[in-house]
Amino acid sequence: MIYLDNAATTKTAPEVVEAMLPYFTENYGNPSTIYSLGSTAKKAVNQARRTIAEAIGAKQEEIYFTAGGSEADNWALKATAEAYSQKGKHIITTKIEHHALLHTCEYLEKHGFEVTYLDVDGDGLVDLEVLKAAIRPDTILISIMYANNEIGTIEPIAEIGAIAKEKGILFHTDAVQAFGQIPLNVDELNVDMLSASAHKLNGPKGIGMLYIRTGVKIRSFVHGGSQERSRRAGTENVPGIVGFGAAVERAVRTMDEKIKKETELRDYLIGRIEKEIPYSRLNGHRTRRLPGNVNFAFQFIEGESMLIMLDMKGICGSSGSACTSGSLDPSHVLLAIGLKHEIAHGSLRLTLSEENTREEMDFVVEELKKIVTKLREMSPLYEDFMAKQGKGQ
Predict the structure, then answer these.
(1) I need a labelling partner for 345 at 20 to 30 A (CA). Which of 37, 60, 101, 192 fits?
(2) Per the residue annotation, which of 267, 323, 354, 360 is the catalytic one?
C-alpha cells in the first residue's frame, strides 16, 4: 500500500503509542483525584500541555484540550460570539474554510450573527485589502485557516493577525493542517486563538486543542466540571493527551528534515504529473503551500472513479476533505478558486509523509497516467474535445 492521504489522517507513530500505553493500564487514574494514581495522570497531562505550549510559543495555561479540531473550531466561534455579542455580531471568514468552521458560521447566522465570507484568488490566497474593506465597527472576530486542507495554500496569517490586532478584533486560525508540519509562533502570528488536532501529526485520533490567549474572555464550551480551568468539563482523555504531547515532541524534533524531504517529493511529483499528463491543473499556490500537499484537477474525468482505480493499485488518495467524502457536490474550495464544476469534479489530492519515497512517486505517476487515459477514453466530453481539436488543426 502507498498511503498518500495524510491530510485526512496520519499513522500513529510507534513512540507515540508506546508513550500512551501505560495510561490505559497501570497509570489509569483520573487526574482530578488527589491520591497518587491520579497525581501521576495529572503530571502527564501537564507535561503534554507544556510540550504543546512550547511548540507554539504559548503559555502552558493557554492550552485547552478538546476532542479534536472540529470541536476547537466550534468552541472558538460559538463562545466568542456569545461573549462579545454586546460589542457586535459581525464575523469575517473565507469561502475556503473547513466545514467545521463554515457550518458553525451558518449556525451563528441563524442566531442573529452576520458573516462575511471573503473571496480568494486563483491560488486560494486572501487579499489583505479586501479583508480590510470588510471590517466594520461591529466586527468581533476574524477566523481564517492557516493552511487549506485541500489545496495546501498557506495564508498570510501574520499580516492578517496584525490587521486584526490594530483594529482590536479577535483573530482565530484553524491550524489543523499546519500545526506540527511547519513552524508556528502565536506571538509572531498575532493570533488570539488557534485550533489543532493530534491525528494530523502522527498522534492519536479524538484529541485536539484550542489555544486561547490570556485575556480573551470566551466562556466554557462543555459544562459540568472544573476540568481545563473550568472552561471545558469532562474527565481528561489522559492517553490521548499524552499521545498528543509525544507526537508534538516528535514533530518539533523532526520538522526541518521532514519539511525538506516532503517538499522535494512534492515538487518531484508535481513536475512529473504536469509534464506527463496533459490537461491537468495544479490547484493551490505553487510555493506557498504545505510541504506534503499535491492537488490536481484532471479535465474530462470524474474524481471518484479515479480514486477507486487508484485504490485497486494499492494507492490511497482523496478528492478533497475526508469530511465531505460522501458528498456528490464538487469541492467548495475548488469552486472558490475559480474552477468550473466539471473540472472540479476531476480533482485528486495526494498528501505525503516523510515515509514516502521517490520510487513510490514514480509508481503513482505511471499508474495515474494509465488511469487518466482509460477514463478519458470512456468520456464523451473528452471525445468531443479531441474532435474539435482535430478540426481546429
Answers:
(1) 101
(2) 323
